[in-house]
Fold:
Amino acid sequence: MTRPTKARIRQSFERAAATYESAATVQRTICAQLAAALPAGLQPARLLDAGCGTGHAITLLQARFPTATTLAVDLSPAMLEQIPVACGRLAGDLEHLPLADASLDLYWSSLAVQWCELPRVLGEARRVLRPGGQLAIASLGPATFHELRHAFAGVDSYRHTLAFHSPEEIDRMAAESGFAAIEVTNAREIAHYADFRSLLKAVKAIGANQLGAGRRTNLMSRSAFSRAEAAFETLRTPAGLPLTYDVITLIARI
Structure:
């Protein structure tokens, strides 16, 4: 699958660091759901939040595992600066972790791996986990932001969302990477917005507006925007304009 360059992803999240928390309501919900999916009795001595963003999950993990050494890795130094609690902070790529082999008991990642080549991420997670180590990942599936694809279908031929792996693909990749006790679940979270402009602004505020090859590289005309807006309005519900997050959770261990 085509992904934006790491430089563009970093740039996007550097810009979004100051606005991310104000727009990340769904992201916080998904973090809580991933935490609830962790096995009972888990007591990691050393854990990693991979693609930590502004550190919301770090707070959850430290509350649950107060004696664990906590590490945070993100591609964006500006995101790392937003973390509100003490932890080890490393600017790095999830496909090339700056960590030693067999050095972690828990690898956690919520809504970050969709920006990466997933087999490489899982290979790195397998490398840095100790025997018996736990993997917990929340990513996004193919129905994510399908409303945007609907809105722009009759307007242009550009890409308006990332390509996402299916639950079946994620299950297979985890097995091929050497994980066991694999559990993959799928659910949807839907955010609602008052209008099309505020929806697009929220997507940009969380840094989710980088799409890689096939994206629009010129400014959208007023008429194109109006047509997309009108198409999106056909999806309006009593709660507002919907935007779907197709959430895939992967729980596994070494």
